[in-house]
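To whoever picks this up:

The parser on our side crashed when reading a file containing two proteins. I've narrowed it down to the boundary between the first structure block and the second sequence. Both blocks are reproduced below exactly, byte for byte. First block:
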Amino acid sequence: MTRAYVFPGQGAQTIGMGKALAEAYPGAKAVFDEVDEALGEKLSALVWDGDIAELTLTQNAQPALMACSLAAVRALEAEGWEIGTGAYVAGHSLGEYSALAASGALSVADTARMLRARGAAMQAAVPVGAGAMAALLGLDFAAAAAVAEEAAQGEVCQAANDNDPGQVVVSGHKAAVERAVEIAKGKGAKRAVMLPVSAPFHCALMQPAAEAMAAKLSEVEIRAPAVPVVQNTLAEAVSDPETIRAELVRQVTGSVRWRESVAWMAAQGVDEIWEIGAGKALSGMIRRIERSIACKAVGTPEDVKSVLALA
């Protein structure tokens, strides 16, 4: 098998995620301790026993999801697994930071601080209520992009997430996104629904956040990853630290090219993907993109034992 490892993005968070890993593996517990220390607060307490509304706040969800993913990585390592057994790593939006941390390009502490800054900057970029996102189901990327362009009418409305062949998310000014929902319904979309998000991610309205992240990312060391990272903005593998840094900035306003990223990995011979961290959302997308790829979710101690027994 030619294997890749992928890491989930925002929306996968749940109260209690990663707790069983931390209880079963000291290395997994150490990840949460390191994130708590880097942020100067007990994020782990919120993740394991807190309120889901507070956890879902962007500045909390982003470092929390990374911590859960890296806890699973440490659990796998404790059982003898190595990241180098994969051909590539990739992550959906914030999951790209988890992929970089897992592959050694970023330290866990730096990743936590970058994601806290990223979440806060993205939230602050647009006044609450001014922006929105919507999922257009049953339209391919080209059709969804055309809907977004028609809906813009002088405002921002962009195809933000190309998730799979029938799921594209648009982002921008609230009125423009609402127009996109109505236009999409008339263009043959199976469903078009507004999403419960706090800001319009991955569109031009995020430019202030991109500028903030450029400043923050200039301060951290990025090393060559142990395995190449398939970046969201490029949909192909990268190992050069300065390219990684530049594309992390561009990712804030750019589209998440997930469908293309998975298709690119499949074209390179990847036939098995492990989704490491919370949930199974990426596995569902991957199956819709390329049915030949076998998907396995790794988010609990039982998952760790199961995938390694079959590896």
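<<boundary where parser fails>>
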Amino acid sequence: MEYFLQQLINGLTLGAVYGLIAIGYTMVYGIIGMINFAHGEIFMIGSFISLISFLILSSIGAFSAVFAILIVLLVTMIFTSVFGWSVERIAYRPLRDSFKLAPLISAIGMSIFLQSFIQVFQGARPKPLQPIMHGAIKLLEHNGFAVQISYLQIIIILLTVGLMIGFTAVIQQTPLGRSQRACEQDRTMAALLGVNVDRTISLTFVMGAALAAVAGLMFTLYYGVIDFFIGFLAGVKAFTAAVLGGIGSLPGAMLGGVLIGLIEAFWSAYFSIAYKDVAVFMVLVLVLIFRPTGLLGRPEVEKV
């Protein structure tokens, strides 16, 4: 039971990171009906920006761990959001009214470009980071095995829940959220009614990039090592989480991320770790067979 509880904590932490990335996927898809396959690389860029920021602050050496994390979080969200806005402005907006495969090809090309950009300017070798936050709370101990949750895991889980609640409130209760929902239903009619469609879509990309920046920072702190390729696998799993929970649903994206994190943690603990990704995608296949819209997704109704 102790081992099970420890893996439950680890799975929830990993699922929180996947859920933050998945929300970015589902927000963009909900408005323009396009999968932003470069979103994983935005997460990767956020990880590198956070690493560079920590190295700069450590060279100064005048900040506590909590204060340094807050500064890096703010810097990472700002710069990563600029990348998200630039990607939408350069790669997606000119092709928005083109045939459906054009934005998809552009997204894949942008993903490859961002990978290569980071590989050239930061190198291909993994970049380590010394632990920033230490300490844990011991929950219970039996036969020499202690179940504990670190302070960093607590921060990751609480921050993820808070961001999901905050962004859900923004979409449901603010003028920006009403504009986003209007664009989701009919962009042409929304534009006729005075909604600035271009600005709404750009802000959606910025919001998704900000969430990916938080996920990148948490990933860097939690694992302590990053490279230019982490965005690909994390992006694929986050996209899987969005589909699993129901593409277009923010709570569904978070639920899918948590489920994938739990599947990975428990499979790695009780079975062969080499097949943890196979287990994740097998669950996705089963869900799509028996519930094609995902766990919290709603079937699309086309009006004629």
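After patching the parser it read the second block fine. The chain is about 75% helix and 5% strand. The first helix runs from residue 2 to 32.
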